[in-house]
């Protein structure tokens, strides 16, 4: 794929999914793009590699890609020739219960409903229409909400449910299986399930899961950013690793600078050029609860009691809906629960090449308070034993990452916040500040493109793509798939003072 004719210089700070998405969008619009990454490897939250056992490949952060597979940006690109191949497990998601049973989520609404017994009809009634509209909803919800939707009636149907607390939506279901499945997905909010708009993320992820499944990227999540990097290189872009940008003054001339940074870090890089009103808004930006991560090399896999879990790429450990709601409320209040909610990834079931013989990679996140300084390893292993007795005996190697280690791994994960910002009701709708174009920093030519901007976390690239479209509009350039560009900012300075990259 070659860029269209045109010229311009763009610099992208950060080579995670959003930074590379911004870079690809600008490169395909004719810009000469340079990406600067502080780490020695690209990928941000999509890096993968061996840990402890040769040949056993772990995803260091994101692993199941329901929003990635459904991303309007990624779907607009033909990334298979660049190495991205999606693989699906037999069961997309399982949610075990203390009874030994489990609820299961499939790509099919009907198959999921058939396994939920008395709640089958209620599940079809709620998620059938949402899954049918998943592509329309993704296109609307994964862009700034100030934008006029193309299908307002369909979006209104989603919005009626999404604005409710997850606890209210859960009352539609009577069985522990259906309530557990919904509650586990709703807990991706990383916040109280009782809050307004608390159901939005769970509803959207389930709808997209029924449409696109919960696939893994073959070879590891790094394949997503490797594919974007290969496309960028073919389009004439350039990536430099091991380059930490501390100030705009370090950068060479550019028409557009894209910052794949959280607001606090962006404010530091922009410095005194940042308008006071924007600095105040960035200072008010709140970060959410943290994550504590375990990577386990397990001989023979996890010995789950529930059969669904043995075939599921993703498993949620949290027990009943009521328990999940209680635990998420405690974490939000800064209290570490004895039984933390956990997300377990078994992507080797879809991608056997990640295993070595009978030793398989299993990763797990626990929701913990922001900046939690303790060790959640024992609590997490107890949760495994609760639903899969005998897990400890099968562990060949174990690697733990605390909230502080997650922040060192990725500077955007402040306090272990892997979603780059708290999903409070207001911030969920207006991150990182309440303006029509949240990607603009108030400095001509400088844009925020991280997961702190809409639509938020996930290896989908939409934040970066949306920010690049904002930059194109500001520069008076044609916007892919959009309206004619605005000329309002054509008089803005096009270049910064000349500097060299140090």
Which CATH first-tier class of the largest domain would you pick? Answer: Alpha Beta
Shape: globular
Q: What structural class do helix, strand and pairing data support? A: alpha/beta
The CATH architecture of the largest domain would be Alpha-Beta Complex
Whole-number radius of gyration?
22 Å
> How many strands?
16
Largest sheet: 7 strands, mixed
- Gap between N and C termini, in Å? 32 Å
Overall mean confidence score, pLDDT: 91
CATH topology annotation of the largest domain: Polyamine Oxidase, Chain A, domain 2
Q: Which sequence of strands runs across the widest sheet? A: 7-6-12-13-14-11-15
Uncertain spans: 1-6, 482-502
Number of helices: 20
Helix content: 25-40%
- Taken as a percent bin, the fraction of beta residues is 15-25%
Instruction: Tell me the domain tally.
Output: 2
What is the secondary structure topology, with strand pairs?
Elements: E1 9-13, H1 17-27, E2 32-37, E3 48-50, E4 57-59, H2 66-69, H3 72-76, E5 86-87, E6 91-96, E7 102-105, H4 109-114, H5 120-132, H6 134-141, H7 152-162, H8 166-170, H9 176-186, H10 200-212, E8 216-217, H11 222-234, E9 238-241, E10 256-259, H12 263-270, H13 276-284, E11 290-299, H14 307-310, E12 312-317, H15 321-332, E13 342-345, E14 359-368, H16 377-387, H17 391-394, E15 395-401, H18 403-409, H19 425-430, E16 446-448, H20 462-474
Helix pairs in contact: 1-11, 1-20, 5-10, 6-10, 7-10, 9-10, 9-15
